């Protein structure tokens, strides 16, 4: 694959951009057993370290000795190298169950985490431009049995808010009540259909979350819990989860390596926990913006613009590839003299990936998920 600047990517959400991204697709009605997981890396994960452009002659000079570990990672092609902590993701890439995208961003060009996350979750053109999220709007396109949505979070995040019902689940760290108390509460709620239904749903979600979590910890435990919440006929078909700790202003090398190791374990546990359903699942991992090309004085990176995204799935189209209209890291090519210049719109990438996954015509997908861009 060649990586060079093309003006077509600047068109953002154009159908031409989607046809470049997903050639030869046939559109059909939405399937009923598809699953979709969106993982938001809150804090601006460093895409230049995750999927390092080691073939760019300006990469190593820009990042200095702290970037040398990129050379020890798994080569994805002649240009990009996956971070050495992402061992399982590298295996999925070789099996054509992983696809990486680089130099992409939403339309947001400032440097506030909160505003950027708001844009990414709402799918609006500007911060706080909408009070619903594009994942909720996705639910309106799916059959009822495929539209059961859940977030692993203390409350339903913006991305899942909207007219279609969605729920959230977060496992309590406190010691749970004993079985006798749970039974008494169930009996208390039995006379109220609404409360009884909510209580039974909560018990079912807790049981599914515990089913596969076992004694695993960290990212593996989260991935296993997510798989449990998506298992069985009553399980969620659309799931959002968020990971934190990506804001690496200092001592990035060790911190980012641990973060990516946990993310890698999460993906592997999700794959293992879903079993055969992995072949019906699309996983999208993205962050609100990238980080500066050069390191700062404390061994970290500051808020940037262009970043990377990752797609996983057992039946992923165009797996085993890196898609990038690479702008180059020479000083003259940087945005604001400091950032990776984005050449692909986040919204276009989401539209193409979900159109492919669900077999829904791209124009309809774009109009529904990102109506502000039509």
Topology:
Layout: H1 15-21, E1 35-41, H2 47-50, E2 51-52, H3 59-63, E3 74-75, E4 81-82, H4 87-94, E5 98-105, H5 113-122, H6 134-139, E6 149-152, E7 166-169, H7 179-189, H8 193-213, H9 218-229, E8 238-243, H10 252-274, E9 281-287, E10 307-312, E11 321-323, E12 344-345, H11 346-358, H12 362-369
Parallel strand pairs: 1-8, 1-9, 5-11, 5-12, 6-7, 6-8
Antiparallel strand pairs: 2-4, 3-4, 5-10, 9-10
Quick overview of this protein structure:
The protein has helices at 15-21, 47-50, 59-63, 87-94, 113-122, 134-139, 179-189, 193-213, 218-229, 252-274, 346-358, 362-369, and strands spanning 35-41, 51-52, 74-75, 81-82, 98-105, 149-152, 166-169, 238-243, 281-287, 307-312, 321-323, 344-345. With 374 residues, the chain is an alpha/beta fold.
What would your notes on this structure say?
The longest helix is centred in the last third of the chain and has 23 residues, at 252-274. The chain contains twelve helices and twelve strands. The strands form two sheets. Strands 1, 5, 6, 7, 8, 9, 10, 11 and 12 form a nine-stranded mixed β-sheet that branches. A three-stranded antiparallel β-sheet has the order 2-4-3. Residues 1-31 have low confidence and may be disordered. It has 374 residues and is an alpha/beta fold. The two termini are 31 Å apart.
- Overall 3D geometry? globular
Task: Please mark out the parts with pLDDT under 50 across 5 or more consecutive residues, or reply none.
Answer: 1-31
Round the Cα radius of gyration to an integer and report it: 21 Å
Strand content: 5-15%
Q: Give the integer mean of the pLDDT values.
A: 86
Instruction: Give the strand tally.
Output: 12
List SSEs in N-to-C order: HEHEHEEHEHHEEHHHEHEEEEHH
Q: How much helicity do the residues have?
A: 25-40%
Termini separation comes to 31 Å
> How many H/I helical runs?
12
Biggest sheet details: 9 strands, mixed
